[in-house]
């Protein structure tokens, strides 16, 4: 309950410890901390911030993200920088954001053997369709669960297989016999390794529409308020939602329901304040 399946992670090529704090994997640490990382980066780029994090804490959060050497962490870095720079809604800032995001992805591919092997593995599986016992495990797991999701969706496109049914779908459609160790073939049997995959498989088109509606309906754009606080809270959690949809298929870990609740209440509070101001102006 305090240290869930914790183990030591190292970076083989330079023989250093990868940061995962008290969580099972470095990627889990990145998902949990990405809202704080987003706000820290924002405060580095923008001197005026409605949320104040001390310089020590700010740089500690940012540095630990890089020291996870996590592919998902680099995706979180790229998305955070992109969202922050896009807030300016100017061509120059858009170019800067896309350039910096591309730079982080390029650096992670060139200098992180984990990222390189996984991206190469994804290309081999999704593009070339090659599967063998030498295929990168993470790439295989994603491809395997993608295959399960597609077959389940085609069988039940509107409502999916039902909440909690993913393990049944996995047993029915998973690609077996690729690795000699059966546990590897069955990785993420219950959670799909992706919240998007699991939601589509278990809830079908209805689940996908609900996700899009929830995210878009509660999104706070730059033009909705002069108070940066609501935009900052919304976008910091939005990056977390993106990472969860991409990589982690469990509904409840990392305190995720609480972040969704904050995401919803943030927009609700903003609308209430705007309604009060509108009423006062009429009086």
> How confident overall, as mean pLDDT?
83
Order of helices and strands: EEHHHHHHHHHHH
Structural class: mainly alpha
Global geometry: globular
Distance between the termini: 54 Å
Share of helical residues: 55-70%
| Main sheet attributes: strand count, strand direction, barrel closure | 2 strands, antiparallel
The strand count comes to: 2
- The multimeric state of the shown protein is single chain
Strand order of the largest sheet: 1-2
The proportion of strand residues reads under 5%
Helix tally equals 11
Q: Which regions have little confidence, pLDDT < 50, spanning 5+ residues?
A: none
Based on CA atoms alone, the radius of gyration comes out at 20 Å
Short description:
The chain has 283 residues and is mainly α. It has helices at residues 26-45, 55-67, 71-86, 91-111, 113-127, 137-155, 166-173, 182-185, 195-217, 228-247, 256-282; strands spanning 9-11, 16-18.
Structure description:
Helix 1 (26-45) packs across helix 2, helix 1 (26-45) packs antiparallel against helix 10 (228-247) and helix 4 (91-111) crosses helix 5 (113-127). The chain has a two-stranded antiparallel sheet with strand order 1-2. It has helices at residues 26-45, 55-67, 71-86, 91-111, 113-127, 137-155, 166-173, 182-185, 195-217, 228-247, 256-282, and strands at residues 9-11, 16-18. The chain has 11 helices and 2 strands; from the N terminus they run E-E-H-H-H-H-H-H-H-H-H-H-H. The mean pLDDT is 83. The chain is mainly α and 283 residues long. Strand 1 (9-11) and strand 2 form a beta hairpin.
């Amino acid at each position: 309950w305090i240290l869930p399946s914790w183990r030591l992670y190292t970076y083989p090529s330079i023989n250093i410890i990868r940061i995962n704090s008290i969580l099972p994997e470095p990627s889990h640490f990145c998902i949990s901390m990405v809202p704080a990382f987003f706000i820290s980066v924002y405060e580095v780029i923008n001197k005026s911030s409605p949320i104040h994090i001390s310089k020590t804490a700010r740089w500690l959060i940012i540095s630990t993200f890089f020291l996870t050497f996590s592919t998902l962490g680099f995706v979180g870095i790229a998305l955070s920088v992109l969202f922050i720079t896009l807030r300016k809604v100017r061509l120059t800032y858009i170019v800067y954001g896309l350039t910096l995001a591309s730079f982080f992805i390029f650096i992670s591919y060139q200098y992180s053997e984990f990222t390189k092997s996984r991206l190469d593995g994804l290309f081999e599986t999704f593009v070339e369709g090659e599967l063998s016992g030498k295929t990168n495990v993470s790439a295989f797991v994603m491809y395997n669960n993608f295959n399960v999701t597609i077959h389940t969706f085609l069988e039940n496109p509107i409502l999916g297989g039902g909440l909690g049914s993913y393990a049944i779908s996995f047993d029915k459609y998973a690609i077996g016999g690729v690795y000699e160790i059966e546990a590897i073939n069955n990785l993420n049997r219950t959670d799909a390794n992706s919240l998007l995959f699991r939601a589509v498989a278990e809830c079908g088109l209805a689940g996908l529409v609900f996700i899009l509606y929830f995210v878009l309906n509660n999104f706070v754009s730059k033009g909705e308020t002069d108070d940066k606080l609501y935009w900052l809270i919304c976008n910091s959690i939005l990056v977390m939602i993106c990472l969860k949809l991409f990589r982690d298929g469990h509904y409840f870990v990392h305190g995720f329901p609480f972040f969704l609740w904050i995401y919803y209440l943030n927009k609700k509070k903003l609308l209430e304040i705007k309604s009060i101001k509108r009423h006062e102006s009429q009086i």
